[in-house]
Q: What sequence folds into this?
């Protein structure tokens, strides 16, 4: 991800409308947090697989806590995506509402 907060919204780049930099900064931060969690999950899965292949009792017991952490992380990722969707939708609707109000004002 590029951390350049002056990016334009891809959907509006062609019509010259700049996206709200605060919205894109929040989206960027959320996606970075999700990616970090997914990277952690990948490492957990690799460790669980190694422990499973070893068939050592200690490693199998350790897998219980690793899988619990993995499940918790999945719930966090779902929550982050849900929050991201809600925040992005609200921001888009707010922007659309203000744009429509400006057009109506300009016509009068």
A:
């Amino acid at each position: 991800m590029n951390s350049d907060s002056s990016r334009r919204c891809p959907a509006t780049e062609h019509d010259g409308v700049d996206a709200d930099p605060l919205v894109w900064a929040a989206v960027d931060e959320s996606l970075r947090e999700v990616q970090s969690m997914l990277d952690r999950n990948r490492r957990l899965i690799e460790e669980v697989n190694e422990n499973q292949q070893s068939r050592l009792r200690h490693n199998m017991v350790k897998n219980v806590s690793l899988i619990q952490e993995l499940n918790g992380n999945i719930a966090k990722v779902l929550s982050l995506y849900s929050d991201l969707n809600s925040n992005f939708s609200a921001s888009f609707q707010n922007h659309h509402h203000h744009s429509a109000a400006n057009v109506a004002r300009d016509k009068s």
Observations:
- The longest helix spans residues 57-107.
- Confidence is low (pLDDT under 50) at residues 1-17.
